[in-house]
Design a protein that fits this description.
737 residues; alpha+beta; Leucine-rich repeat, LRR (right-handed beta-alpha superhelix); Methylamine Dehydrogenase, Chain H; 7-stranded mixed β-sheet; 5-stranded mixed β-sheet; 8 helices; 42 strands; chromatin regulator; WD40_repeat_CS; centromere; DNA replication
């Protein structure tokens, strides 16, 4: 890539001159340029520039402060443009080419027509009629609805202060974005973006009537999706519903407000926020309610088995802890050893309660269950190693991608008749043609009752393919973190399969190859790959035990069926009787490269055990069983409700698991060592996060549901929990003073 200097501009420009100010045409195509390669100060001297070719580069956005008042033609085709609002400064632009920019959506096209008032030719087509409709007719319709909303529900504060106006603006704009509807759902992102701008303009006009309404518009990109989901447990309570459309948004452009952009609002009892957001998210259907059935259904009805009512005696230890204090932070227990600042336990506060997987879009659906959630890897955000704030959740017939900070459902995907039970993120290569280099992109895989794996590229809002992994329901998905195109699927036909899903090309063509079949004696509930050897070993938490497999691929054949290498047992198995079966392992995750956290719903605690020391007990034998080398036991709820999955945050040394009363048990365990056994006495939780008790309109407070799954980002800035009542709960870390 050649550095852009005055000499380069003079060589690439015409007419031939020795002054930048006299250049009228400039060709900087196919130079591999990125945003940082365009020096704004130097380019601003091109005051006579009329035509500019920037095609075939790697631009994701245009320099925001670059004003070229005479520029009439711009070619940005074959780039990687994402944020079209950065072109707003080119107010004189009449013709624009944006072909072969994979992330540009219909909503982005509409935004360009509004932002560029003189734009007539777009991608070689005359768009004058459409542009004028958007600039005037569409705007007037939206403004009429915004005005009606204001007159119905809002008024200026008395007296008018900056603080009150700021709060009013946030509330009004947020309400307008979610209540003002106009136009087709396929451009809902554009509509909400435009509504936000117009709502701010309208509010300013009430206090500053002479101010120009063409204020600078914010860059938010959303994409369309649908809303609806089946159910799982049965408890029905109501809350006001809102239809959320998926949206694409750059990480740097995400709204700063933590509370203003969520779809539904359910008031949270815990005081610290007067407005806590409520959006909608996915769930799993198939588990009984407060009095679940004891009969076990067919294997292909995932997650329905083993629900047993809990007796008062079994609840007593938990209830005693609850009665000891009514505050949600009452269960903070001291860590005995002195910790470094990075080892200090975190404090979490509830931020959003979302309801986004409702069956038939009903606000009264509190029976759809949510089953799996995972944070997007950071690699596709900005490349700066920043934390991820997007979490994917699934359940019912839909899958959502949620921005944890704002509570906005960014994307939503619905498959009528499906019921999603598992999802997983990965990063694969996307080819962009013969001359363009391949680039990494984050994808989602999701599966459930139909036995199909759906492959989705959320950033471009494309569900680009599917393949059949089983004739029965899929219970677990897991990508190899060292080889992102390798996907393991667990299914209710007692098999775990390894697939090579490859990458994708610019047309989203892909190829799937089956590499390995592992024969499991029972239904796999979780698949875990050792951090240091993800390509050779696999752990599977199953309905009947914890099994280990050798997944080393053979060079002799592409597909090979194998049975388990060994079973890992636990001391509590010796206490089993006719009424207590402790073999169901429904929680499994690595805390470090060697320490594993696992649980059974009937144990009342979580085991931390050494993977290396457990395996070393029988290094030369195959088959059979070995007892886990337990390092510590973590206190957890007394419950017989299964499938309450635990999760870990290795960077923060946290183990987290929800219970059947809406609480989140957090354990900060930075001092567990593989060399010492600490299992003599269960370690109490560092903190138990109480159920935030959302208030439903007309129905009062909602009781705590079962927490089916939890997820944390790598820095534990956010904690996300999924319930069996169609609710996603998001906690945010409280920064220490």
């Amino acid at each position: 890539m050649e550095k852009i200097t005055e000499k380069v501009l003079l060589e690439k420009g015409s007419p031939r001159t020795d002054k930048l100010e006299q250049i009228k045409t400039l060709n900087l195509s196919k130079m591999g340029l990125k945003l940082q390669d365009l020096p704004v100060k130097l380019l601003s001297r091109l005051c006579s520039l009329e035509r500019w070719d920037l095609s075939g580069n790697r631009l994701q956005e245009f320099p925001k402060k670059l004003e070229l008042r005479k520029l009439r033609y711009l070619d940005l085709s074959d780039n990687q443009m994402e944020d079209v609002t950065t072109l707003e400064s080119l107010s004189s632009l009449e013709e624009l080419k944006m072909d072969d920019n994979f992330y540009i959506t219909v909503s982005d096209n509409y935004k360009l027509m509004v932002l560029l008032p003189n734009l007539r030719i777009y991608n070689s087509k005359d768009i004058s009629t459409t542009a004028n409709h958007l600039r005037f007719v569409y705007r007037d319709n939206l403004m009429t609805r915004i005005t009606a909303l204001w007159e119905k529900s809002f008024s200026l504060p008395d007296p008018i202060t900056a603080e009150k106006m700021s709060s009013l603006e946030k509330n009004f704009v947020n309400t307008a974005r979610h209540q003002v509807k106009f136009g087709p759902s396929s451009v809902s992102d554009f509509t909400k973006w435009r509504v936000e701008i117009l709502a701010k303009e309208y509010l300013r006009s009430l206090t500053e009537p002479k101010e120009d309404s063409n204020s600078q518009e914010c860059a938010e990109v959303k994409e369309n999706g649908d809303v609806s989901t089946p159910s799982k447990r049965k408890r029905t309570e109501a809350a006001s519903g809102i239809n959320l459309m998926p949206r694409k948004q750059l990480r740097s452009d995400l709204p700063a407000s933590p509370v203003q952009n969520s779809p539904l609002k359910i008031s949270l009892r815990p005081k610290r926020q007067s407005e806590t957001q409520t959006s909608i998210s996915p769930l799993r259907t198939d588990r009984a309610l407060s009095t679940p059935p004891k009969t076990q259904p067919k294997a292909e009805t995932p997650r329905r088995s083993l629900k047993v009512p809990q007796t008062k005696e079994e609840k007593t230890p938990v209830e005693r802890r609850k009665d000891s204090s009514k505050g949600r932070n009452a269960h903070v227990l001291p860590i005995t050893k002195t910790l470094n600042k990075t080892q200090q336990p975190v404090r979490l506060q509830p931020l959003h309660v979302l309801q986004c997987h409702s069956k038939y879009d009903s606000s009264e659906d509190f029976s759809t269950q949510l089953w799996a959630c995972a944070f997007q890897p950071c690699s596709e955000f900005s490349g700066d190693g920043g934390e991820s704030r997007l979490v994917a959740t699934c359940g019912g017939d839909s899958l959502c991608v949620i921005d944890c900070e704002t509570g906005v459902v960014m994307k939503k995907y619905k498959v009528p008749g499906e019921e999603f039970f598992s999802l997983a993120w990965s990063t694969v290569l996307m080819s962009r043609g013969e001359k363009a280099p391949a680039q990494l992109c984050s994808i989602l895989a999701a599966g459930g009752r139909r036995g199909l794996v759906k492959l989705i590229h959320p950033r471009n809002n494309v569900a680009y393919g599917e393949f059949r992994a089983s004739r029965k329901s899929l219970s677990a998905l897991r990508f190899n973190h060292q080889q992102g195109n390798f996907l393991f699927t667990g299914s209710y036909d007692n098999k775990i399969m390894l697939w090579d899903i490859g990458g994708v090309d610019s047309s989203y063509n892909f190829k799937v190859v089956q590499l390995l079949v592992l024969e499991v004696s029972t239904t796999p509930l979780h698949i875990c790959l050792p951090p240091t050897s993800p390509s050779t070993q696999l752990l599977s938490a199953c309905e009947r035990g914890l099994h280990c497999y050798n997944t080393q691929l053979s060079t002799n054949s592409t597909t090979k069926s194998r049975s388990k290498e060994m079973e890992i047992t636990f001391p509590i198995y010796e206490e089993e009787d006719d009424d207590h079966d402790y073999h169901t392992i429904d929680g499994l995750s690595f805390l470090t490269d060697d320490i594993v956290a696992s649980k059974s719903h009937m144990h009342g605690f979580i085991y931390l055990w050494s993977w290396s020391r457990t395996r070393s007990q029988r290094p030369d034998k195959r088959g059979g069983a070995v007892c886990a080398v337990v390092l510590a036991e973590l206190q957890w709820a007394n419950t017989e409700i299964p499938y309450l999955a635990l999760n870990t945050c290795p960077d923060r040394a946290y183990v987290v698991c929800g219970d059947n009363e809406g609480r989140i048990w957090t354990h900060h365990v930075p001092n567990i060592q593989t060399t010492s056994c600490q299992k003599e006495k269960p370690i109490p939780p560092t903190e138990v996060l109480e159920w935030p008790s959302p208030m439903r309109k007309g129905l009062g407070q909602m009781e705590g549901p079962s927490i089916n799954s939890v997820a944390m980002d790598s820095e534990l800035l956010y904690l996300v929990a999924l319930s069996d009542k169609n609710l996603v709960i998001i906690w945010r870390r409280e920064e220490s003073s």
